[in-house]
Here is the input.
Amino acid sequence: MAVFVLDKHKKPLMPCSEKRARLLLERGRAVVHRMVPFTIRLKDRRREDGALQPVRLTLDPGSRTTGMALVRETERAHPVTGEIRRERAVLALFELFHRGHRIHKRMDQRRAYRRSWRHRKTRYRAPRFDNRQRPDGWLPPSLRHRVDTTMAWVERVRRLAPITGISMERVRFDRQKLQNPEISGVEYQQGTLYGYEVPRGKKAGIHVGRVAVRASGSFNIQTPTGIVQGIHARYCRLLQRADGYGYFVQPNQRRLRFPPPPEGGGSPAQKYDEIESRDPRSRRRRILGRGTRDSGMRHSGRDL
Here is the structure.
């Protein structure tokens, strides 16, 4: 990590290496100006006496942390083609931790305190949230903290380094436009699997489009060729929801477990028939079990 350098008038100069900063301090040409971030101030140097290079501050914002990088930009021409290439060298890296989640938790706690005051047997505190007006550009306290903290550190780094440009990464992009650059409007809600399938009836087939759901159970589907009216809900099977997620149907395979085959050959059912024919009590128990099936009692038998 590079060390920030200031001239004798506290104007920013080009950052130097740690070794060079240590030599300047040992020889008495510089003094420590700031500990975090570590900055030295030269005693015998002015900003007009030296040359400055382009320095850019890049930002990568996030909800929990924000990454900051200070880079030096240089332009070099290719010796063969003559093409100008821009190269960057990292001078310093920062990681700014936000406490927006803690602010949100404290705001919820304060809201709970206010509500509990109104229900206590104390002096009545009338709610006043309807009397307050939010100004233009208002942000929640957690988001306001994130913006203010980031801007404060950007201004702090600007006072320590000769920054000529600031770049910020924007992570918002349209994924569906990567597949269809001409997508617009309701097409975002209609994917390749969005629609309903009617398995039987006069209007059997697959109908793709916007569905008008009604309490009566009779739906209308707006398709590119027209409106399909009067399709009952029991004839419809949902293929894709309009929530941006992909779904698939997996059949539920029910497995039946049979006891191992008895000794001497034959199927288990045949062996059980032989046991019931020999024991009259098993037949009586089977008849009683069939009679009590509707009452919700468990019964024993060969019904699987």
In short: Residues 4-49 form one domain.
